[in-house]
Amino acid sequence: MTSNREIHLASRPSGWPVEENFRLVETDVPTPGPGQIVVRNQYMSVDPYMRGRMDDVKSYVPPYALDAPLDGGAIGEVVASEAPEVAVGDTVLHGLGWREYALLDATGARKVDPALAPASAYLSVLGMPGLTAYAGLLEVAAMKPGETVFVSAAAGSVGSLVGQIAKLKGAGRVIGSAGSAAKVERLRALGFDAAFDYHDGPVRESLRAAAPDGLDVYFDNVGGDHLEAAISALNVHGRVAICGMIAQYNATEPPAAPRNLSLVIGKRLTLRGFLVRDHNNVRETFVRDVAGWLREGRLSYDETVVDGIENAPAAFLGLLRGENLGKMLVRV
Amino acid sequence: MTSNREIHLASRPSGWPVEENFRLVETDVPTPGPGQIVVRNQYMSVDPYMRGRMDDVKSYVPPYALDAPLDGGAIGEVVASEAPEVAVGDTVLHGLGWREYALLDATGARKVDPALAPASAYLSVLGMPGLTAYAGLLEVAAMKPGETVFVSAAAGSVGSLVGQIAKLKGAGRVIGSAGSAAKVERLRALGFDAAFDYHDGPVRESLRAAAPDGLDVYFDNVGGDHLEAAISALNVHGRVAICGMIAQYNATEPPAAPRNLSLVIGKRLTLRGFLVRDHNNVRETFVRDVAGWLREGRLSYDETVVDGIENAPAAFLGLLRGENLGKMLVRV
């Protein structure tokens, strides 16, 4: 416990990020002040939304600063505490990933029980991606039993849970799209009724074949041609929960937008963007449902784990290229 | 009462319709069979949605047939009846415009009281455009007091009511866009807090100047650059009621879509297309509210009236070019 390594943003990416946008920096392990704790991170999360924070634009979260550590979801063990409510040895969830040791106010940490679930699960199925899937599908898109649901990036951390939760909540038919044959195979194993590789042809045609009777709900992680295809396939009173548009996060030009948007009138479609932070009101039922399904073995979750803080940039770049199955994590 | 004139669709328009797409046809005045009535139309409505029905595409209403009369909202006096519940002399609202005499089942007609309001009002402020404005603003966009509302095509039959109803229901600020200086002047007279001519510069800039603190609600009649500008200007949790996209009804190419659609995520925007026919549940409160406002002189409505069934195509073409102030009607 003599040195700490962290990842700084060395320069802002233009288009696709590259390794040179990141810098591994060695610092001292911090010492907590009053009310503070030091956490040795065990896992940190890399997420698509982080790409947006690398640009210097106003958004719903402030941009990352240059020459300073990145941040994001992480879980670890408290190794020093000057806060009475947190003890050394506690496992806590917090927002200062991208570093080996995190110094933070104890109020910014949430204690979790590592006996209930593996630490990594709090960053995936029981964490932000899980709640995103649950709230987006059931609250934002208001899925009802019997409906047909389509989710893009379906082999990712959020998408794979959306599809499974839809089935568990009584969806009539669940369709997923993903970026490789192996992912498509995995979706079938997870219980998706249909799945396709979006490289295999126009999304519109693949979707029509997979959903001959149309869609009621589309959970959008991708934007672009997926959204356009879904708008065409949606039935009257269909809903779109817009969670992400990863297809365009690295675009340097404004993206092509759905050119069939006027269909929303005749079909009375609803498109709703959402952020998980608005949906803490369902966290309790989410945890109860998901913990129950995990216990009963009815819900699976995949993790792709990369070892070593020095490989966090590579993990992030891999995530943007879709190299993950399920949640992409860095074991620190 | 020896001959009847009606307008047929002679050919399907490609892009902007022209007079040659229509044909004036002389027929006999029909005779009612059992349960039927004959109505001498006094006013007929021309509406933007009719443009879509001139194309041979599947939509929420069937396309108009070639070499057959067009149809649409109309009001007139019953001149012959073989239905016990409707008497000669009654004034009825029905769906067979574009002709001087309409033959229809009595079940397809709704009796109205011509003493309560001028007949034309049942095709505008008290009719479909009025309910569209009311339900779109208050139900679909769920406007709340104090909010900032923007409406496009604001000098049209729906738009002018949206803006006034917003003020009457306590909107903090109401902004309208229209297509001429005279219309902009009219909007100011109607009580809009700000109004601009969209020819005067990029909509995005005009809107930013008119709504420096952003928008909460956008009532979209136009699509295209108006929708894109509104998405940029909307505040967190803003809502868009999508009523029409007249900017693209005559497009022969797929229209440019909003290229900033990914903003819906961070701002948690909701975009909802709607059709007035789904909102009959608010018809009663709509009639009560609007009749009250009219009685109290707090709500104005404009009508642009063209005389003669033979001029109905010209009235429709004028509507598409924005030559109307308020509701465009044909006095038959």
Give a description of the structure.
The first copy, chain A, has 332 residues and is an alpha/beta fold. The first copy, chain A, has 2 domains: 3-123 and 302-331, Medium-chain alcohol dehydrogenases, catalytic domain (Quinone Oxidoreductase, Chain A, domain 1); 128-278, Rossmann fold (3-Layer(aba) Sandwich), CATH 3.40.50. Helices cover 25% and strands 26% of the residues of chain A. Chain A has helices at 49-53, 128-140, 157-168, 181-189, 203-210, 224-233, 263-266, 283-295, 312-320, and strands at 3-9, 22-28, 36-45, 74-81, 91-94, 101-105, 110-112, 148-151, 173-178, 194-197, 215-220, 234-242, 270-273, 303-307, 327-331. In chain A, the strands form 3 sheets. In chain A, strands 3, 4, 5, 6, 7, 14 and 15 form a 7-stranded mixed β-sheet that branches. In chain A, strands 10-9-8-11-12-13 form a 6-stranded parallel β-sheet, sandwiched between helices. In chain A, strands 1-2 form a two-stranded antiparallel ribbon. In chain A, helix 2 (128-140) crosses helix 8 and helix 5 packs across helix 6 (224-233). Chain A starts with a strand and ends with a strand. Chains A and B meet through helix 7 and strand 13 of A and helix 7 and strand 13 of B. Chains A, B: One of its GO terms (molecular function) is oxidoreductase activity. Chains A, B: Its EC number is 1.-.-.-. Chains A, B: Residues 20-330 form the Enoyl reductase (ER) domain. Chains A, B: InterPro entries: ADH-like_C, ADH_N_2, ER, GroES-like_sf, MDR_fam, NAD(P)-bd_dom_sf.
